């Protein structure tokens, strides 16, 4: 009998929410039931059934992960990294002002580039410490940027912050994806 | 009886499924047993989350089985109800019975 195909995104999602042995057992259960359903007279859309199971499992498993304290660590790491980035940003502003002429191209580029790069590195570092924390970092940065947009009320600042709203969380997630990369299973 | 010993409805259903399935109780069989007997289409994640909660309370224990090709080489996590779990199940059933004594006519009236 050939081994059933398990969609890689499903492995990734379940792997984030359960310890390795449990996520393997759960994915094995899904594969086994999927194979059983294919042999029976069940409705033909097995991929739909599979993804419905995975998506409906996220809520209960997230709650279970929070109960066992795993997510507390994830939140702590994400918030600590975010706080560190905020401190570095405030220092970088002063440093960039000293190094470059205000309004010049070097000043503008370094001012704009610092936050996304810091988010990318922060996402990578957070993911290395705790799986899933890069996603929390991305959400935190998005919330902080939206808050700034609401508070600023200035059209130019809102346009400028909209770019950050897209780029910064994306950089945190990209850094996180790189940090999550694990050796291939044998 | 201390309140903490009373089980939630899903916990009771999962424990009954473990009793019924005996040595063949693992995520998939528990999920299917519940679906077949109650018509409740639980997600596999809800079953695992409940089993994990019951295990943390000492009502259930688990062990890893052998990996099989049908499961993509993944091992089963087999669950069994412990004596403490059986006691909690009995206590909850008894509490429900006591609460419903004499209410049959009233419940059927509407």
Summarize the topology.
The complex is a heterodimer of chains A (186) and B (110).
Chain A: H1 8-17, H2 20-39, H3 46-67, H4 70-99, H5 105-129, H6 133-152, H7 155-180
Helix pairs in contact in A: 1-2, 1-3, 2-3, 4-5, 4-6, 5-6, 5-7, 6-7
Chain B: H1 9-21, H2 27-38, H3 44-56, E1 60-64, E2 77-81, H4 83-100, H5 104-109
Antiparallel strand pairs in B: 1-2
Helix pairs in contact in B: 1-2
Description:
The complex is a heterodimer of chains A (186) and B (110). Chain A has 7 helices and no strands. By secondary structure, chain A is an all-alpha fold. Chain A is elongated and about 70 Å long. Chain A starts with 7 loop residues before the first helix and ends in a 6-residue tail after the last helix. The model of chain A has no long low-confidence stretch (mean pLDDT 83). With 110 residues, chain B is mainly alpha-helical. Chain B is 56% helix and 9% strand. In chain B, strands 1-2 form a two-stranded antiparallel sheet. Classes of the chains: A mainly alpha (186), B mainly alpha (110). Chains A and B meet through helix 2 and helix 3 of A and helix 2 and helix 3 of B.
Low-confidence segments of chain A = none
How much of the polypeptide of chain B forms β-strand, as a percent range? Answer: 5-15%
DSSP strand content of chain A: under 5%
Given the helix and strand composition of chain B, which structural class is it? mainly alpha
Q: How far apart are the first and last residues' alpha carbons of chain A, in Å?
A: 20 Å
Task: Name the structural class of chain A.
Answer: mainly alpha
Query: How many beta-strand elements of chain A?
Result: 0
The largest β sheet of chain A comes out as: none
Helix content, binned percent of chain B: 55-70%
Instruction: Give the radius of gyration of chain A.
Output: 21 Å
The quaternary structure here is heterodimer
Round the mean pLDDT of chain B to the nearest integer and report it.
Answer: 92
- The dominant shape of chain B is elongated
Radius of gyration of chain B: 16 Å
- Number of beta strands of chain B: 2
State the end-to-end distance of chain B: 31 Å
Order of helices and strands of chain A: HHHHHHH
Q: How much helicity do the residues of chain A have?
A: over 70%
Low-confidence stretches of chain B: none
């Amino acid at each position: 009998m050939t081994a059933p195909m398990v969609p890689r995104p499903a492995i990734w999602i379940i792997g984030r929410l359960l310890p390795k042995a449990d996520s393997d057992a759960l994915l094995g259960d899904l594969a086994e039931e999927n194979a059983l359903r294919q042999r029976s007279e069940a409705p033909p859309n097995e991929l739909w059934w599979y993804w419905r199971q995975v998506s409906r499992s996220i809520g209960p498993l997230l709650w279970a992960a929070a109960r066992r304290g795993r997510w507390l660590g994830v939140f702590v790491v994400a918030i600590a990294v975010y706080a560190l980035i905020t401190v570095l940003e405030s220092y970088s502003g002063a440093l960039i002002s000293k190094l470059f002429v205000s309004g010049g191209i070097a000043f503008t580029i370094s001012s704009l580039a610092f936050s996304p790069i810091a988010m990318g590195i922060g996402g990578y570092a957070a993911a290395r410490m705790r799986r899933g924390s890069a996603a929390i970092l991305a959400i935190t940065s998005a919330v902080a940027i939206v808050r700034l947009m609401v508070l600023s009320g200035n059209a130019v600042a809102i346009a400028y912050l909209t770019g950050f709203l897209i780029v910064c969380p994306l950089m945190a997630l990209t850094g996180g994806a790189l940090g999550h990369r694990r050796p291939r299973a044998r | 009886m201390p309140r903490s010993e009373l089980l939630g409805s899903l916990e009771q259903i999962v424990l009954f499924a473990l009793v019924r399935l005996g040595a063949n109780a693992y995520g998939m069989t528990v999920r299917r047993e519940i679906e077949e007997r109650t018509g409740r289409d639980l997600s596999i994640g809800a079953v695992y989350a409940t089993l994990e909660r019951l295990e943390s309370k000492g009502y259930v224990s688990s062990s890893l089985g052998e990996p099989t090709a049908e499961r993509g080489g993944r091992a089963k996590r087999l669950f069994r109800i412990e004596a403490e779990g059986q006691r909690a199940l009995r206590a909850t059933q008894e509490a429900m019975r006591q609460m419903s004594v004499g209410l049959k006519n009233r419940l059927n009236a509407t």
